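User: Structure tokens for both sequences below?

Assistant:
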Amino acid sequence: MKILLIYPYCLESRLNDEDISVVPQGLFYIAALLKKHAYDVEILNWHNTSNRSQDIKAELINKNPDVIGFSILHANRWGGIDIARIAKQVNPQVKVVFGGIGATFLWEHFLTHFPEVDFVVIGEGEYSFLNLIQCLDQGTAYQLDHVKGLAFRKDGRVRRNSDADPICDLDQLPVPAQHFSYQHVSLTRGCAANCHFCGSPQFWGRQVRFHSVDYFVEQLSLLYQQGIRFFYVSDDTFTISTRRVIEICKKIIQTQMDVQWAAISRVDMINAEILYWMRKAGCIQISYGVESGSEKIRKLLGKTISSQQIRQAFELTQKYGIMARAFFIYGCPQESWQTIEETIELIDAIKPLSIIFYILDLYPGTALFDDYKNRNTLSDDIWLQRIEDIMYFETDPSLSKDLILEFGKKLRNRFYEKLPEFVEALDLVDDPEFYPQHSDFFSRLALTFDKGDYSGIDAIAHKDQIAEKLYRRSLTYAPNARAYLGLGMLYQQRRAFDESIQILRAGLEIFPHEEQLQLCVAISYMNVGDYHQALGLLLKLQHLKEGVYFIAQCYQALDDVTKAELYLKKYQTL
């Protein structure tokens, strides 16, 4: 039996597809369990296949699956339906299964209105999907009534079996990294909070379940052996158990895994001890859901945190050289220019180095959506529209699209205006033990202004000056190859090649094998006409395509036509 697990595309394109391009972890767990039971399973990340129906059809013909499982979040449900229709055209006998948070809360909707969908797995899906596959494989369709967590059509009617039992011991699941490569990992399932805009409490339940420390670290180790050096810890609240997190951090340090990672937490579940160990173990960013500067709006959203807790968490996190990123939601119930100003005041107080602003959406499975349905006596048929979501402001007469856009513009412009001040105000813990981490923190932050996310934002003033200050501040803590390279390139941009050579040479004395430093200083030598010095460095870099190109340029400048042509030919073959 051939099984495909597909992560389908969303309806709308994004300026940054980071949020929608990653295969949900659940597919890897399901696939690993199927492999343990000797099934032929493949995961396809089709988040970018919109408007490519012919390619989808050709791939499905080629792979000829017996069963296709779709990971439905919500914004990608129409992508799943579109692909399922193509699959049924290719092979009417193929079985289509929807699962995930979007399918769980719209199971009856899908089975009522979309004949392409044969089954829906509700909630935690590993064993429900495995049991379904075993029934289909063994030809025992009469046993489908006994598969917990399954909904399907029978005798022309939609039916739902009893819910599957939560997996109490998460370690019984095979480690997906034994079979797959990925960057997003999790320690827990469940969320103790009850935010009204989030479907996690209803999907997972509010009882938090944990993998063991050994399971989690083994997963990191297997991925590390595959060459992965950066991880996203995707738990709703990674730090809910201080003891477990500290134990994980100590094991990462003991195993000498040179990794960096980002996590998500709550401002009321963080402290100095846990930040100490997280930073020592490679954590470089923690994202906190702040949502609003208005206590009133946070209460309406079910976000039970105080402004004091928010301020304390951001100050403490950034003292340890961890970037504190804030999530804010605007366009909320009772939003006004006053509440937007309260949010701006809180931003000024906590001085975040990164913010993600969202407009409030209504999704099935959330308290806000349930309230909207009840107030307007609506059914789930509203999702028959080919839309991704419903913006809250569309349901509130006191808000309008133009007003929401003005709110967003005000928030972003104020953040970008104040960001240089936030950077200047950074005050890290003065502990020599952390100097190497502090050096890394400042050089990495400099890079965001120099080449990264902030480099293309016109509203941020004096980005090159900010980057230079940060690179130099990095070097006050410890030598850092990224800082030397960044300064050298900044001087190149200013045509200050002698200064570039000086700083890059200083870097090479400490990092003599750093190839990017060698390449960069060689380019500076070329710009001052010292082609022999440049060649002395570049000839060591013939395995790099850029190195070969600049070698050819040097020989051309030295009128050695034969060698210039030789290296140009080599460059064209690389």
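Moving on to the next sequence.
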Amino acid sequence: MKRNLFFADSRAGGRHESRFAVLRDASLAKVRVLPSRAADKTIRSLASSPSPSLPEGSNIPVRPHLHEDTAATAIGLAIVALALAVTWTARPENEPASRAVHPKGWPTPLAATIDKPQTWADSPLESLRDKKGRSVAPAVLMGMGWVVAVTLAGAALAGQPVLRGVPAAGTVAALACAAYLLASQKVIHYYNLEYPLWALAVGLSIANLAGVPPWLGRGLAGEFLIKTGLVVFGAEVLFSRLLDLGQPGVMTAWIVTPIVLLATYWAGVHLLKIPSRSLCMVVSADMSVCGVSAAIATGAACRAKKEELSLAIGLSLLFTVLMMVGMPPVIRWLGLDPIVGGAWLGGTIDATGAVVAAGEALGKEAGEVAATVKMIQNSMIGVIAFAVAVYWAGWVDRRPDEVQASLAAEVWRRFPKFILGFLVASILCSWLFSLSPEAALLVDGTLTGFTSRLRGWLFCAGFVCMGLQTNCRELAPVLASGRPRVLYIGGQLLNLALTLAMASLTFGWLFRNAVEP
């Protein structure tokens, strides 16, 4: 029976990379779609056959498309470059090199095109005006528009129909605005229950109570939005600021973090016997590195399920709130030096915003130390993702009974390519920041006025999509066992102990003179 190879492709999207071959049975005129390893074997066997041929006139048209990671990198870097260029065109004439005149950097015209709902107490309508009484409604609507524009640009680069995705993109943007609105309520904002929690809650509620209609499910691009947001986030990781603390900051972040990650992962696999190694990895990375961003990056490297990512992020957000509220009083009760306490906060609390809020409760200097230690941890995202890709390709998913590609090729296939965009954005903005005082103000104004706001919108929309794609019934057996919670709590206790010891050693003793204000 003669079979011809119609079409073979390799695409990565979401948690799975699907390699598939479409085969046509010449006598029965049937089409078969073979996923994953079966497709690999089929493609290899057909490629080695004497002369595989395509039936005349049987070509299947394929739209030109980019890999999701490549599209996220291209769009993220284009956003950063565009924002820098627009801010440069609005260079202020009044003392452009003065930090005193421009404490937050140069004002950028793009700031008027994006904002989020403001803090409100009694009526949600209060969220549409800032503290000075000015309306932010147009900027909020345009923020939703940015989400739609980025989503559709990603669809175009991926070779998908653009107009068909407009209703889904608009709905996701509206739900992201609703999540922001919930997070900005005065009491909720006071306890720093940030937008990721509400975005996940909104998506989960719809998916598991009402159900997701097919037109919306087909248009969800959550992972693409988060990846693009991470590329944009790279612009905020400035090397010169990371090195402000020098050796104590690097030692506190870079020595403790991998120890905690490896120990937690080992405990999840071998002590708690959690069946899913990818769940153990995303929980460990989320807890030990920098929360949501690390979970997304490592989840892409180890092909974690969306349900596993949602569980890890939910645990992270819950304990972030508890630690943000509880750790400053504990630090005062223990009588720790505020600088040591700030370093402890920066190395243990997951979310950067919560780190800043908790650090400032101890004082300005403690807040700056906490934020810088957290940013040093953030810089490890690329290294951790690469290491996870190597480990998964070389050990976890390696099958001795199957023909395997070279380890380097397999690692490259698994490595989340958008991390390269994150690094390029970080290197570019770090280089610009170090050129001159004017360039530093250009970068600061771009980050504070536009890219950080857009990154927040992209993350919020991505978490909404993640919630919409999460089936709580699939998580029920894992949640019932309680083992992921035990893993997170045990890993965090280890993290707290080791980070406190390292912060006391570096900030409190070895380099005390170097970090004193």
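User: Anything stand out in the second?

Assistant: The chain is about 65% helix and 5% strand.
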